[in-house]
Automatic annotation (TrEMBL):
UniProt organism field: Torulaspora globosa
Molecular function in Gene Ontology: ATP binding; protein kinase activity
Gene3D superfamilies per record: Transferase(Phosphotransferase) domain 1 (1.10.510.10)
Occurrences of domain Protein kinase (ranges): 405-831
Coiled coil segments of this chain: none
Region (Disordered): 1-35, 150-193
Protein name: Protein kinase domain-containing protein
Superkingdom: Eukaryota
Polar residues bias spans: 174-193
SUPFAM superfamilies linked to this entry: Protein kinase-like (PK-like)
Basic and acidic residues bias locations: 7-20
Amino acid sequence: MPPTERLLVRDHNLDEKAMRESVASSGDSRDGIRDDELYFEPKRVYRRSTDSSSRSSLVRVYSENERANFDQVTGSRIYDDLKHRPIPSDGKIAAETEGRSLVSVGDAQRSRKRRLSLNDGRYGDMQDEYIPDLDFSEAVLHWQSEDSASPAVLSQKLRNDSSNATPTRFPGSITRTNTWSTDREPNSGSVSPNSSYVFDSSHAQVEPIPLPNASNGVSMITPLSASEVSKSITGPGANASDVDPFKHGHLASSFQPRKVSRRKTSVCESYNSASSSLTYLPDNTVSIIAELRMTPEEVLELIGKLPHDFVYMPYSQRKKVILDLIPNKDYKLLMSVIKKLMLKSTRSSVSISKNSLPAAAATAKSRHGSVASQFLSSFSPAGVTSTPSANSVRPDEKGMEIMGYSLGKVIGFGAWGMIRECHNLETGSVKAMKIVRFRNNMKVKNQVLKEVSVWKELHHQNILPLLQWKLNDDYAMYCLTERIHGGTIYDLVISWGEYDTSKIDLVTRCKLTIILCLQVTSALKYMHKKYIAHGDVKLENCLLEKQSEASQWKVFLCDFGMSCHYKHCEAFPVDADSDSEPLTNLPECSYTQLSPYMEKKKIAGHVNEPLPFHRSRSSSGLRHGSRMVKFHKIMKNKKLTHDDTPLGISSLPKTYGPALTSARIGNSSFPSLRQIASQSTALTPTMDMTSPHQATDEETRAVGPDPHSHIGSLPYAAPELLEPSPPPLGPAADIWALGVTLYTMLTGKLPFKHDYEPRMRAMIASGKFDRKALETVCRVTTEEPDVTRRERQDRPRFTGLYNALMGCLASDLNQRWELDRIETSLKDDLMKLSPLYN
Ligand SMILES: Nc1ncnc2c1ncn2[C@@H]1O[C@H](COP(=O)(O)OP(=O)(O)OP(=O)(O)O)[C@@H](O)[C@H]1O
């Protein structure tokens, strides 16, 4: 069998695929290992010798732990990594498993057990995969012999590889213009139908920024700085703009020493090695870029389009983003090269644990001013000096003028754009400009039109104001707003740390949480009175203007990208002034979401047509309620706890599965969602896109528009939104998200968080979270043995805060509190505190 065939492992087996997804998503992408495992280093060895490129090859790089499983000289397996037992030298086990993939044997039990193990983190970095017919010893010997090959030969080889690559521009690549004269107001512009991107989602619906202390033992990875990337692209001492690597072979020669020394190190190791100089592109990047038939500029351009928190996204989301942006390339190769360019595992590999919060806090800055932001901002034309058209300018780059303001530095990043500081050309006053670049992507454009249509209606002291906006019809939307200087509540919570090692005393923590959340509550009340649901309430979307007195701090709710109008049934007023009206029957009310089409019309001043996607009373509410009850019953009967259901949903009836697992949304029970989602406005990237399915017309009719499209950030998603047919977005979802926000402020950790998405969904659906932590912070528990009676008397109990939070996080919509009640309860606690603490 030719060597290339020996290395070829086809990805037919669904179990294996699921396993792969499971491994990728259960593993934290920050560990810098998982994605790279898709490539087995000898692939290049073989490719070089045969000059063939087998894109479909499923090969991988070994992590150091995995490598320890093999004899480095003979390449034979030493340990059976499922059982951690030495393998007999006669190779019995190897023979046993020969010819089949370890995870593709179709043995569901074994596969499940393995996933369980991975989930438990016990074998977290032992995700092995058996490659049929691979002669490891031969591969290793070949590998070693190539180590001694002369650098010149390798260099020549690389040059050949590179010159064979025909750089092609990927769809949607930027056409640069030197002038910017196409600004038009939205009502004058028509949306170009010539979208060359294929985006399934016009809103990233991004995961919230992970709290650095959310998982232990995760190595801290920081993106390369702009200069490091620039250097790594150009090589030391090179004039970036002069370099056309594929023409002149500069890259090959620049990277030659690195490539030679690389042989004995894993990808991660190479970053960590003492000699690792970031002036070189990591390892096999050149050959990967060549294989992708892309130029480095195109790769950089692609990186510039990625969401700010791309590197922190779960594998499935990253895959989706890549496929959306550039569907015609090998996403695995792309993910590998992007990761290599974007990440630098610091040599010290800071292990983030409860005890290392200061380090984590220092590193995990908010998006504004973060290393990631700076890194990404380096991909604006001003930052990328290596682009051929270095003289060209883009309308959103620093120094450009828009609406009488000069654009300044980047202060934040969103899913599809950035936020720049800007200065009034006449007065010099400082503001902020949110720039959403859609270019010719209709969906993103429609989404931002929708955002503006909602945002411009909002005038409240705790809502970031939209001062002016301007649409550059075929490029971007510009939104002028106030510049807020205090970061976000996310930053604040990071600085506080977790409750058990809290940097501020818990009483102050509770008090500040109440003060700040009362302002968010006020903003939400205002929005709900206008029948607008925010849809993405989270720590990161609460900007903070600090004053010398903490009690004077001001919150501004921002980001209306997920916001939408809902039509409310008069019989069940939401947030009525009456004090404690429960949200009884709320889901029965008929909400209406405006389609992007309608939003566009509205913003252009042509509203008042019948609204699509109308849901009748019966369509969601009661059905939803009874389903939840049924689901809880099943959970109870089957005794499904977080701990005994590592897969979250494996033993649930199919009907309930889709609510909990993206994989199932993608295939079995609700197969048509994939197709529907691709037609609808926003597709939640939490959906698994690995199992394409063509829906029949009947299926499409039965299911309707993507029901999960209003999930902003999964950890903040209300359980009803995870239902197979969730109610449309309404105030109740905001209230749940407010509860998640409150909880996180108080405890320093998200109530529902798991790296493995289906499990997180199961946690949300079950509504179970760590109440003990909350009781401790709010001091509602009676058990405080180490506290004297006197101390107990002095230390106030935050019963109102505790109750309000529990009211927000009531899974049962009938039990979930309304904003007025939450407000009253929070204020009660403040009143009680006032004589003591004011
Ligand atoms: N007016 C402002 N002043 C200072 N910083 C801001 C301002 N607006 C936004 N930011 C920063 O930029 C970040 C992103 O802003 P915003 O959430 O509006 O963008 P987005 O594209 O809607 O993001 P997302 O991807 O979360 O939807 C905020 O979290 C904040 O850190």
